[in-house]
Design a protein that fits this description.
By secondary structure, this protein is an alpha/beta fold. The protein is built from three helices and five strands. α1 links the parallel β2 and β3. The longest helix is centred in the middle third of the chain and has 13 residues.
């Protein structure tokens, strides 16, 4: 069974909080990218309910880290493993 991607967000002043659940892959990544495109300098992205993430999902997180002053991640074990394997944790504040 494929987990549908669900993305919600809330803006509070200079920060946007994004909650993500399900699978992030080539078919769903545009939904995530849309939520990460915002004028706020700080993003907090809760990925604790992400069940799958591929390199297109990681690329969207890296793009967000380049576009914003600070990107904080709450990672699921699968997201954490991908970030560890690709040595990209230095791009994010890991919560």
């Amino acid at each position: 069974m494929i987990d549908e991607l669900r993305v919600e967000w809330k803006d509070e002043g200079a920060s946007r909080t994004v909650w993500v659940s399900g699978e992030i892959d080539l078919a769903t990544v545009d939904t995530l990218r849309s939520a990460l495109e915002c004028p706020q300098p700080r993003l907090e992205i809760d990925l604790s309910n992400v069940t799958f993430i591929d390199l297109t999902g990681l690329r969207s997180l890296i793009d967000a880290s380049e576009a914003h002053e600070e990107v904080a991640l709450i990672a699921s074990p699968r997201v954490d493993r991908l970030i560890e394997l690709t040595a990209t944790s230095h791009l994010f504040q890991m919560l």
